[in-house]
């Protein structure tokens, strides 16, 4: 292990003032600006696409025979109303098979189940159902007054509505959301730390001098990869602590969050190593790296909260930032995340694949000289 | 008879099928200060780079300390010190950090490394500036630091590729004196330059290169005798050089050498 090479390259990275500014101060400033600018972001109005509503009604329920009429009304509103006689409601909502679920109770009440993010859809359904059953009751009353039997009209419906919010996906505050997302985003930008070493090497004949020594090629790679990862991790942890102290950002599962930040630091380093081997110009490598990070962030919820992303699922799912952001935000809001596995897998695969490619490219570059 | 440290056999390097170094044969013995003299683009740096395994030869063989560098370079790298033509130091590292870094790459560590750093800095007269950042140094100090970074591991063969380019006469004189001192302590030196007076002042044997070939080789006196039959001639090395390589200007583009 080339410890002195690692130590001195780390010194070079920490002695670059603009890198320190970018990695510690800029994230804090960005978090302050964006969390304030988008304070109401989590409750903004937005257009709603067609959506699915499930319902469950017992066989003997008098309302069962009006459901076809209700389905027609819903269809006109762009809502598909389907019956689900069985199945766990929470699972149906989590799997996004339905956006809202109505359960008719024996006491002529119905309960609306929704996840936090489907508040608007639930409101629409509640309005339609309440309006419909109000009219049904009115018609029933009129017929009773006229001495007619209710016949096809259901017995009086009380119209009591009980709305229940399932704890599927709580909404973070804008400060927590941006406080987490921008620590992740800037950690990816941390590949810029390599510039301190690589530009110094390329300005002079350092690579040549190193090749004249009997240092193994892998040491040459590790001599940059390890200090870069350490620099990113330490700098971003400083920004993290600073933002927590200044803005009281709530991070969940600190242990796992730190491990994820460490993995991001490793992945950003391996990515940077590839880019700096691919291009002779340091500036071109940085620009490509930043564009890549921006695109990953665009699909991963760095600029618009991932819950509101209306982009194709394929692009969203292919961004590692989506899994990282979602995992860390869910740690903050729920204390756990179903995305943890995918987040770790994505980062581990990226570190291994980019690491191998980086080593191959570095060997090839050194042999070409 | 002295041990042969470096042997070049038919050494050739071509770029785009154009020979930059063309079938060079050469032997350098232990204890020599061997001068490689030639105009710009003669192939000196490429030859040096091939000796240090920084550039792969197109053809031919480099034998260092009896090992073929193509197959056994790792065995001899620790015995080799290379001072490139360009500065090879980190501006944002202190003088001692630069020396520590490059000396450590030869596997030296712990107390030995500390001692090597101190001795190297003392040797080039920079011990009192050990905590100064290299970027704040003058051209001459940077050149001296460049040398300090290559001698910490006490190499048996030192390859200097134009180490005095762009520095003041005092620094140049200091470097030349130090090279002689290193040689007296037992290191063999290969010294490349196009400054005739430097080569004349320190080298025991000289090879003149032109257009990728060695056009003459020998002591200064032997070189003089190659161009004049007058045994009492007082020709300078520059006159010998111009006689052998001609007076035509040597313009060459970057990458040709």
Write the layout of secondary structure elements.
The complex is a heterodimer of chains A (369) and B (257).
Chain A: H1 3-14, H2 17-37, E1 51-56, H3 67-76, E2 79-83, H4 89-94, E3 100-104, E4 110-114, H5 119-145, E5 161-165, H6 174-189, H7 194-203, H8 206-211, H9 217-247, H10 254-278, H11 282-300, H12 313-318, H13 320-333, H14 340-368
Parallel strand pairs in A: 1-2, 1-3, 4-5
Antiparallel strand pairs in A: 3-4
Chain B: E1 4-15, E2 18-29, E3 33-37, H1 44-51, E4 59-64, E5 67-68, H2 69-76, E6 80-83, H3 95-104, H4 110-123, H5 139-151, E7 157-161, H6 169-184, E8 188-193, H7 196-202, E9 205-210, E10 213-218, H8 220-227, H9 237-245
Parallel strand pairs in B: 3-8, 3-9, 6-7, 7-8
Antiparallel strand pairs in B: 1-2, 1-4, 4-5, 9-10
Helix pairs in contact in B: 3-4, 3-5, 4-5, 8-9
Q: Mind explaining what this structure looks like?
A:
The complex is a heterodimer of chains A (369) and B (257). In chain A, 63% of the residues lie in helices and 7% in strands. Chain A has 369 residues and is an alpha/beta fold. The longest helix of chain A is centred in the middle third of the chain and has 31 residues, at 217-247. Chain A is elongated and about 105 Å long. Mean pLDDT of chain A is 86; it is low at 153-160. Chain B is of the alpha/beta class and 257 residues long. Chain B is built from nine helices and ten strands. In chain B, the strands form two sheets. A six-stranded mixed sheet of chain B has the order 6-7-8-3-9-10, with helices on both faces. The radius of gyration of chain B is 18 Å and the shape is globular. The interface between A and B is medium-sized, with 26 and 33 residues.
